[in-house]
Amino acid sequence: MSGTLIALITAGCVFSGTLIGLALSKLLPAHHLTADSKDAVKMGAGMITMMAALVLGLLVSSAKSTFDSTNAAITQVGAKVILMDRLLANYGPETKEVRETLRRMVTAGIEMLWPEESPTELGVMSFERAAAMEKLLQQMRGLKPQTGAQQALQAQALALGNEILLTRWLQIEQAYVPLPLPFVVILLFWLTLLYTSFGLLAPRNATVLTIMFLGALAVATALFLIVEMNRPMAGAIKVSSAPMRNALEHIGR
């Protein structure tokens, strides 16, 4: 599910918990809402608050770690692309075609990962996008080094290419590791119970409803951020394309 849908469900469930609590406070007999009873409800709410805060913190930490690792991987790929282009340039003029393939590979990556920012004038086809890295490695293996220096440069360029290919597959695999749904469901259940207890103890007036609604929105936006950061290449909060665009500008110089 998208982050927006989860946020809407969260806001609806949490605020509904407040309304249920307000309704229960009106329906329950008076002896169920004595001072001792309210103290017991507050103790239970405090325990739920602690558990919800713990799970929410774990989810935020996990999502932030995923986002940061992806951002670091993109930055490293950009640097490796620039280094690979320099190695090929030092190899000699016979790598001109290989360097052009490298440019097309970077363009393909930008078009796939950031389609809203893609340089459409280059028009890389979907098949070429998928095979660009493999074609580049094949071309580099086909080079015929004449000197020891060229052989060393070829080996370094191939090593960088394999590292970039590995990073690409790691990111693809990571995309298939979604946020654990049970964590989200349990957290939402706890938050709904928590706001039900708030509604049970709160007076029924517009101020209380407004504050509870704003609190539900705050919780919903927190889950929205968690879901979106957990999908750093597909969500509304995406890693920057600046490292790849910078690499694209350096290729061929």
Q: Which keywords apply here?
A:
single chain; 253 residues; mainly alpha; 8 helices; 78% helix
Summarize the structure.
The protein has 253 residues and is mostly helical. Helices cover 78% and strands 0% of the residues. Helix 3 (96-113) packs antiparallel against helix 8.
- Round the Cα radius of gyration to an integer and report it: 27 Å
Largest sheet: none
What's the number of helices?
A: 8
Please state the structural category: mainly alpha
**Multimerization state:** single chain
What is the general shape? rod-shaped
- How far apart the termini lie comes to 44 Å
Strand percentage: under 5%
Taken in chain order, the helices and strands follow as HHHHHHHH
* Strand runs, count: 0
Ranges with pLDDT <50 over ≥5 residues?
Answer: 119-128
**Helicity range:** over 70%
Mean pLDDT: 85
How would you portray this structure in words?
With 253 residues, the protein is mainly alpha-helical. Helix content is 78%, strand content 0%. The longest helix has 57 residues, at 35-91.
List the helices and strands and how they pair.
Elements: H1 3-27, H2 35-91, H3 96-113, H4 126-141, H5 148-175, H6 181-201, H7 206-229, H8 242-250
Helix pairs in contact: 1-6, 1-7, 2-3, 2-5, 2-6, 2-7, 2-8, 3-4, 3-8, 4-5
